[in-house]
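Why run this: before we spend reagent on co-expression, it is cheaper to look at a predicted model of the complex and decide which construct boundaries make sense. The entries below are exactly what would go into the expression plan.
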Amino acid sequence: MKEEILFLVDGVTFCYGKYEVLHNITFEVREGEIIGIIGPNGAGKSTLLKLLAGYLLPERGSIAFLGQNLKKYEKRTLARYIATLPQALDPPFSYTVEEFILMGRYPHFQRGFFYGSEHQEFVADIMETMDMGHLTGRQMNSLSEGERQKVYLAQCIAQDPKVLLLDEPVSHLDIKHQMHTLELLENLHSEGLTILMVLHDLNLASEFCSRVVLLSKGGVYADGIPQETLTFNNIEEVYDTVVIVKENPISKKPFIIPVSKKYLNL
Amino acid sequence: MKKEELNNSRQKAVGRRQDDSETCNPKPVTRNKRIVITFTVLIILLLVSILLSLSYGKNIYVVYKSFFTDDGFGLVLKKIRLPRTMVAFFVGGSLGICGVTLQSILRNPLADPYTLGISGGASLGVTISIMIGMQHYLGMYANPLMGFIGAMFSVFVVYMLSRRKFFNPNSMVLFGIVVSLVFSSFVFFLFSILDPDKMQVTLMWLMGDLSSLDVSLVYVYALMFLVPASILLFFGKELDILSLGSEKAQYLGVDPPKMYKILFLLTSILTGLCVSASGIIGFVGLIVPHVLRNIIGASHTPLLFASYLGGAFFLIMSDIFSRYLLYPVELPAGVVTGIFGGFILLVLLVRRS
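The model came back. Tokens follow.
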């Protein structure tokens, strides 16, 4: 079984002003993967995601999407393939849930003042499959954090993309909503969506991702299945923290437990 | 075994959530119905205000007959009341949609058409025009033309400054405020050396005067107003998306810098035209979108249309008040919109908190 290569990142370097954030990054994303990008604060995770989404352009090196240079795509065309959820989304006005999700249909929209019934039905279907029918007609600012995150995701799904790029989709949610959101993503993944997400929680990355990319100081430190990348040595080296790595008894994935220095008596 | 339990509990959780939704959630608001009602009311209000503005003091039948006569009231109607009502309609409507547009792209519900520094430049243009007596050379074209040139000049300055920041909304607001302040300071400098008669004329213009545009220009202006306004009405969906910020807007398929440029250009031309036709009329572009957003919601396509109608209604009514509140003394329309608009905004803000 040979999957199509979606992203081909080749020797990408990116700087904010004089400060080099990413250095000579090379990796590829294949269709059907669910990838977690992890690493300490400032390792360049969000920057990498913005580069893949086409929002930032690499200083050196190139990113190809489906065999063509990413920057050659028109924004609207790209939005039909890639849906991206940035870290902070803060609409200044209160839209209804449907209005908000409908914005995701924009890349597929032809012309006119309103989104036609086919778009409305598309959105209604998404809301049904995502089990959010009870949010119909609600105002965005009356939703809880977890519900809002779900609506943001639904907007991305409304773009009907091939790839979903997410920047810390669960970091401000409680454990129930974290699991709920990630299970939702897993379902979408099983329906053929490729997902690439920045995660802070190493255990969630280990549990849900088929592949984990560990970034450190602007470079790829490790890249592979969770059992290979989330090792005791890698994590202690990159995060400069003492941890114990066990195996989750059910999923057989690595499970990382941080250890406070005061118990070490070294 | 374990899996089964897990499945059961998951189903339970789902079931509970659905039960909750039936009991706790308010009935979904049928927003479409609300929009239809709002538009009907707005159109009726607008028609009434237009009739009132044309016919104040006379009955409708007299007004109708006077359209076909060229003396007495017929002349007043065709040479004064109709052009004035038209100016109020176009200026009010344009300010309304410019307010909506800028509030969305600047992501700030308190932005108004003058946020980008247009008022300062236009004031300076007109003050210079009156000071050096340009109407001796250009006649009735002098003040509108100089106002428009001043407005476009300040917009040009803000545009060139913003371009270096990739039209970042925050820096655009800052540039607009600073540019406006600098130009206003020049206006005050000119005031300090201007003779009192000319100062009076300038001040009246600065406070917004719907009667200053010459009749023969009104129809030309009407056309010039209509073109950019009707283009702007097509950008509702882009405004929805741009209000999420330029990063997310790009992910949804909008090209933010390009779109900012187009919208910036359209709103500048419209606001420039407004200012050159009737001086600086405040609060319309702020209050009208604000009130209507509370009624029909934030979705920009209906909001744009409603704000055009609402802005036109608000300015025509304000103009009627300005004419007859202290009859025979005529107030500047900008003063009336300021007082009424400020009052409405305060009530809204207090009620919300």
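Chain A touches chain B at residues 50, 53-55, 75-80, 82-86, 89-96, 99, 103-104, 106-107, 109, 113-115, 131, 133-134, 136-138, 155, 159, 250 (CB under 8 Å). The longest helix of chain A spans residues 175-190. Bring this page to Monday's planning discussion.
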